[in-house]
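Sample A.
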Amino acid sequence: MAEVAAAKETIEKQGAEEDRIRGELDALLAGLPNLPLASVPDGVDEDSNVEVRRWGEPKELGFAPKDHADLGEALGMMDFEAAARMSGARFVVLRGLLARMERALSAFMLDVQTGEHGYVEHVTPLLVRDHALYGGSCQFEADLFSVKGSTGSA
């Protein structure tokens, strides 16, 4: 009985030590950046991007094209200010026909991928626990959105 009790104590102690070491390892791994391929050139910002290949030739329009964001705002179909109030910079609220077009394109691509390429469509929860995002693009608490004060019940 003493041997079993000692073994139980050893298992508990070693389990706690394993959990501590696993936590340290996970923290170290989460801090490692995703490394690009060696063929990806270094750059300080998006202006440092390098064109790798081009398909076709751009059409000569005979006028200076406008930026899509400028067009969308001018037509009342894109609202960057409302999006920034809701979510921060680099987001946009789409309105009217532009919102409808995005929905149609999403449906079209889902239909193509599920109908022709064997993908299975899923509808997942919009809110997830932080561990569900581990290994994805939101590994750090500062990158997460949270629902504060939620009890978890409906």
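Sample B.
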Amino acid sequence: MPLDTASHRRAAFDRDGFLVIEDFASPADCAALIRRAGDIVAGFDPAEAASVFSTVNQEKTSDDWFLTSGDQVRCFFEEGAFAPDGSLRQPLDLSINKIGHALHDRDPAFDRFSRDPRLADLLADLGMARPLLMQSMYIFKQPRIGGEVVCHQDATFLYSDPPTVIGLWFALQDATVDNGCMWALPGGHRAGLKSRFVRRPGGGVRMDVLDPTPWPPVSPENGYVPLEAKAGTLIVLHGLLPHLSGPNTSDRSRHAYAVHCVDAAASYPADNWLQRPPSFPARGF
């Protein structure tokens, strides 16, 4: 189905749970974000926090550096970044998993990119009445050690009542099967929410299982499709869509930038892991 009209985009999104829009970002825009992310990493002192990000062991790796990052710009390491003696296996710029989670509000370059008026129009086409930019991440998917992102739904981590989260994922470098592109289960968003990642009342986090039925094993035979994307492509993700990416075992990085939006018309619970202080609330476009 062509995506040249609002009605076509809405129909495809409702049917599949995702959209793939090529050539959304220019080569210059992609290069500018890559340079800016490099500058942020270059200014990061690993002694400040050696926090590892992992979706495989997220309850164990969600430390205070992570849980207080909702309104900050912070670097997180790959699981495979450290040798047994605690030293980095490779240079710092090849050891970071991601930067999160408020680039869109704290950094001028990412702010401008994230608040492109075309994105506001696209979200309106998809039915989001009052979008708030809640979270952003720069994802490196480093060569050889870029970590797996297990099958998940974005609404697990950014729940609203009713569920409204939409992910905007931008390929800044070519994403292929070889270097860990995303995979998705078309139509899987209609199966409902499987779990919620919430803060424990006494501190820490837990995963509350709402539906224990597992996703089908990841394979083309079970309906999963690779979302290979050339640099500049925007992939729009329904908050209930099951999606994932494998580890990057290639020699090529797979840089990407993602922004997650929720509708201000919905309730955003206080037990969601990502919280913004009253002094620095989430903003729209």
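B remarks: The first strand starts at residue 18 and ends at 21. The chain has one domain: 6-263.
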